[in-house]
Amino acid sequence: MGALKPMVKIYQKEQSLSFFKIIKESLQDIYASRFLSRQLAERDIKAQYRQSILGIFWAFVTPLATAFVWIFLRSSGTVEVTDTGIPYPLFAFTGTLLWSIIIESVNSPITSTNSSKSILSKINFPKEALIISGAYKVLFNSLFKFLLLLVFLFYFGVGFHPTLLLFPIGIVIMVFVGNTIGLLITPIGMLYNDVAKAIKFGFQFLMYVTPVVFAIPAKEGIMKTIMEWNPFTPLILTVRGLGVGNIPADLTYFWIVLGGCVPLFLIGLVFYRISIPIFVERLSA
Amino acid sequence: MKEVAKKNEILVEAEGVSKKFCKDLKTSLWYGVKDIFANVGGNKKERVLRPKEFWAVKDINFQLRRGECLGLVGHNGAGKSTLLKMLNGLINPDAGKITMRGRVGALIELGAGFNPILTGRENIYNNGAILGFTRKEIEEKIEAIIDFAEIEEFIDMPVQHYSSGMKVRLGFGVAAQMEPDILIIDEVLAVGDLGFILKCFKTIDDILPNTAVVFVSHNMPMVSRVCTQIILMEKGQSKFQGTDVSKAIDLYYSRFSSNEKNEIFSDGSLSLEEADLLEAVNIEGVSTLKWGDDLKIHFKFKINKKLTSTPRFNIVLLDKEQRPVAILENNNKDSAISFSENSIEFIITHKEIQLSKGVYSINISVSKKIDGRHPLLRINNILSLQISHPEEVWQPFLLKSKFTEIN
């Protein structure tokens, strides 16, 4: 249609293209398919809410329920947690809501790709649009979680402070990091169901070594070490800090995680692009 | 426009294209994991078959220019769809090279991306986006699409309440708006009513002259109607290739020819003893008559239960696609049928057969009375015969005719 240059496509086995060329093509396709990504996200969001009465409520249920359980455990004295520095309910709510955003973004690439299996095997379109539309969907749900968090922040008396303006950016970063991890596991995850199951299973435990419902223990020990090394820790701590207004003093690890995700995301794109035909070939209906 | 100059350019080129598949899923998945890593590193090694693999497509070569139509025919599992997927860039060949010059449109799945809960109008955007339209283009074309699909009234209804024909119409309506240089068609037009199918063919006919078309079909009359060249595939390989479309179609049919009689019904009172085609020449195992010869068939039945009167014989000729093309006149009271205590025997003749070149089969049904009720026996495919003629036509009859001058 709009393209003026003659489109010549060559398909052959030799993947002699350089890594950088694939990245370039991949990014070009992301740009070229921006309408498609939006349309796909719009389609899924609309369809999801048109068939539901409670709608967005379902996005909150799990994180809020987890938070309530912990608030109850703590207030009833069943468990004792390290002092969090802010009202505990606020700590728990921010923790579980942010954690749910991470989980959703990790799962997003694999879910979007798998749900488009039937189209993938029949129509040639820029596959990257699936990743981007997945990210849009996560961001859409996150928007409501963000608004809910704002309510909590004001309810627990944190109020407005300048870093609050960076809070949304923090959430976008979390989605980016989550998507990067998701994208890296997608090629294998599309071939084997085990990956998606392992992720679901693993993240249940991962939550307890991340300061989601309790803070990093002050006492030296194995838990403290694991939590400090866990790359999700700086993410949760920093983004929660942006919300409640006490950003951790040392942001080095946060920047390392974020900085590391940029090349990893690009590598993920290359693997994704290469693995789609293999996926279609082996599992297309 | 440079269109005229480009008339002869080669748009699709396949050079030694091969693809292998794996028979076992577990192994296939594991190979998949290995391939992902190998391909990221640049996998230039020659691909050989690993255990449990086979060539689904092997060494296919062709060139297709603008205005030409390539028909891909073959049995189920011959590798046609795999080849289409490679042409469409969905999967990569394991050997060889495919070059596609221009915009590719694929009519493989109509209505891809439809979400059943959303309305027809919303789904036009979804499907359009997947086919590569921009929002602006869809907005410009949406009225044309709705008109084409003829579902104005239901356009704001969820697609899940559409009939399958309506869905296909809407899907084709969107796809028809593509202006491709190369069009790939896999049997998608099977659904939909006749009016719509005719409309689709008209659309395809309109775009044919400016497009290179690759057409997969089991519908041979359709193939002979549109295709300028043909590849008959068998077990992934090209069995026949060229511009002689009718020859390929003959070959395709000959793969199916089974000479098995098929008794559909019998009440036990009659059984067929003999059925021969008289004065026919045996060519490669098929009884052959020249066009214009007399068709003479000798029948002999054994009577197992006593019959009160001469039964009626209904003899039908069918073409290669099992469509009845002709029926021989029934017997009446005056027919010369020798009817004895335990057998019935006769020869039926049709003078100067004018069926066109091809292979035909014969079915017979016998019923008790002249009025045709009470079936006694029905046998399909009792004989097959071939009509030979130098000229190949796809219509079932080549009728003798004469042109005269007017003076």
Automatic annotation (TrEMBL), chain A:
What GO molecular function annotations does the UniProt record carry, in alphabetical order?
Answer: ABC-type transporter activity
Record domain ABC-2 type transporter transmembrane: where: 39-240
Biological process (GO), any one: lipopolysaccharide transport
Look up keyword Membrane and say if it applies. Answer: yes
Superkingdom assignment: Bacteria
The record lists the membrane-crossing segments as 53-73, 85-103, 138-158, 164-186, 198-218, 252-272
List keywords of the entry alphabetically.
Answer: Cell membrane, Membrane, Transmembrane, Transmembrane helix, Transport
| Keyword check for Transferase | no
Tell me where it resides.
Cell inner membrane
Q: How does it sit in the membrane?
A: Multi-pass membrane protein
Query: Which GO CC terms are listed, alphabetically?
Result: plasma membrane
* The family this protein is said to belong to: Belongs to the ABC-2 integral membrane protein family.
Q: What is this protein called?
A: Lipopolysaccharide transport system permease protein
Automatic annotation (TrEMBL), chain B:
Keywords for this protein: ATP-binding, Nucleotide-binding, Transport
Q: Which SMART domains match?
A: AAA
Q: Where in this chain does the record put each ABC transporter domain? A: 31-260
GO CC terms in record:
membrane
Keyword Cell wall biogenesis/degradation found? no
| Cross-referenced Pfam families | ABC_tran (PF00005), Wzt_C (PF14524)
Recorded GO MF terms:
ABC-type transporter activity; ATP binding; ATP hydrolysis activity
Asked if the Swiss-Prot or TrEMBL record annotates the protein with the keyword Nucleotide-binding, the reply is yes
Kindly give the InterPro entries that the UniProt entry links to this protein: AAA+_ATPase, ABC_transporter-like_ATP-bd, ABC_transporter-like_CS, ABC_transpr_TagH-like, Bact_Polysacc_Export_ATP-bd, P-loop_NTPase, Wzt_C
By sequence similarity, the record places it as follows: Belongs to the ABC transporter superfamily.
UniProt protein name: Lipopolysaccharide transport system ATP-binding protein
**Source species of the chain:** Mesonia phycicola
